[in-house]
Amino acid sequence: MMEKPEELKLLDEKGYRIDGRKKYELRKIDMKIGVLKNANGSAYVEWGKNKILAAVYGPREIHPKHLQRSDRAILRVRYNMAPFSVEERKKPGPDRRSVEISKVIRGALEPALILELFPRTSIDVFIEVLQADAGTRVAGIVAASLALADAGIPMKDLVSACAAGKIEDELVLDLNKEEDNYGSADVPVAIMPIKNDITLLQMDGYLTKEEFLEAVKLAIKGAKAVYQKQREALKEKYLNIISEEE
Amino acid sequence: MKKVFVNSKELVVPGTLIAQGPYRAGKGTFREGNRIYSTVIGLVEIRGDMIRVIPLEGPYIPEVGDNVIGKIVDVRFSNWAVDIGAPYQAGLRIQDVTDERIDLAKTDLRKMFDIGDIIYAKVKAFNEVNQIDLITKGMPFNGGPLRGGQIVKITPSKVPRLIGKGGSMINMIKKLTQTRIIVGQNGWVWVSGRKKELEKLAIEAILKVNRESHTHGLTDRVKEYLIKRLGTLKEQGVIENIPKFESKGGESNDGKA
User: Fold this and answer.
1) A188 has which bridge partners?
2) Within 13 Å and on the Cβ side, how many CA atoms surround A161?
3) Rounded (10°) CA dihedral B1, B5, B7, B11
4) A75 CA to chain B: closest CA distance, Å?
5) Distance between CA B149 and CA B184 in Å, rounded?
6) Which pTM was predicted?
7) For B171-205, b where at least 16 C-beta lie within 10 A, e where not — what string?
8) Of B110, B143, B176, which residue is a domain's last?
9) Do B14 and A245 touch (CB under 8 A)?
10) Looking at CA atoms only, how far is residue B13 from chain A in angstroms?
11) Which burial class, exposed, middle or buried, applies to B147 when counting CB atoms under 10 A from its CB (0-12, 13-18, 19+)?
């Protein structure tokens, strides 16, 4: 959280945010499935100003052998930010932050996958952030879960995610970059909507216990809206072919 | 409380509620309490009390008896390693290639199959530890190697559609494009034509089937497409005449063989 410039108002008198959204409104989300030819599954997600590409390879045999699990597949996730994805050039390669995000995204996706079906193999997920504008980890989870479905990897549910946060003493849904930088809290949440399982829950900033519970509820609501969009986007790929050809 | 929430052949995505009650959860589904959900993107199939989802994407899972096309990736002392597009590498042993007694010290196995060769083999065994054994003995032309031609890869679950009812689809493509085609159950298809243009056309048709496998009236559309393209090839003087192909009725109703 950075020091907020004096003149910046994140919420105006009418309750509108700096990008014109209301408090509980999501940014515009666009999803495309199967965008990469050589990956087993892929997806491209534009979430506000975030642009994220996810690719899935596998299940495939892995070497060295000691990495193999004899009873299930292992899931490997790499979250990476392109050097040009942020205003100030980011030094390429993994850093403390992206290693952590890779780890928590793996944890968020793993419960959805039925890994026992492919013992001794690995499923590799690559998440490339081409443009970042806050909430890249939730957008990355959304993209990765679409790419996994596109790869035909059996899963119990799609994983959906969304963030909530606090700006100007008010809880809001889906923070953008300014709100994330100058707001007082950010709570990303990933869920598997069928059973209402939470697979990722983090918090950055300060919230009271009541505010925190409220923020989680809000983020889950947002994630459920995203979930519907994910399902439609997946179906769209095939329904488009039907309407084009029949 | 017996209830089905989707229609047969409906497109579902992972986590779609399909049915509730005493149904059996087949491939592509899982049971959670009393309810059955899909685990893959695909088309629902309900037969009696068995519920399955035919996947539209996904890796090849070998089954004993499948005829597959593979590529030799390694030649070892008495066996070959073969890539068949499954999550695991397959093995082909010398005794599954020939009945002759081979003196391994004197014979160079690369004379039989070398790295990069394309073979046509049968899945002999697929066991609990995911070891895949192949056999080429008794296969057409003793399994190959297949010379010339090209390999096209399609989604394994779409192979029945490419073959069509009683081979209707594949025979039509073969006849109209005058190419030799071998379809492996693993989704690898070997295509070889006398003319480059016809080979390319056959590949286009195969990829069209792969892309549009979930649509209706596909056989007719592929036929229409092939005849149109053959017409232009005739104008360009690549071929002299368009081969005649009469389908034997009931083609528009092409199901999954």
Assistant:
1) A163
2) 30
3) -140
4) 14
5) 15
6) 0.91
7) bbbbebbbbbbbbbbbbbbbbebeeebbbbbbbbb
8) B143
9) no
10) 7
11) exposed
- Which of A74, A156, A192 has the highest number of chain B CBs within 10 A, making it the mutation to test binding with B? A156
CATH topology for the A29-245 domain: Ribosomal Protein S5; domain 2 (3.30.230)
Q: Is B218 left (phi over 0), alpha (psi -120 to 50) or beta?
A: alpha
Position A120: which residue type?
R
Say which range, A186-200, B75-89, B232-246, has the weakest mean pLDDT.
B232-246
Peptide bond into B145 cis (omega under 30): yes
Q: Cβ B13–A150 below 8 Å, yes or no?
A: no
Q: Is residue B20 situated within a structural domain?
A: yes
The token duo for B216 is: 């209706």
Give the pLDDT confidence of A89-118 residue by residue, as tens digits: 999 999 999 999 999 999 999 999 999 999
Question: A120 to each of A55, A60, B57, how far by Cα in Å?
Answer: 21, 8, 21
Last residue of one domain, picked from the residues B93, B117, B143: B143
**Cβ-contact A50, A129 below 8 angstroms:** yes
Radius of gyration of chain B (CA): 21
This complex has an ipTM of 0.89
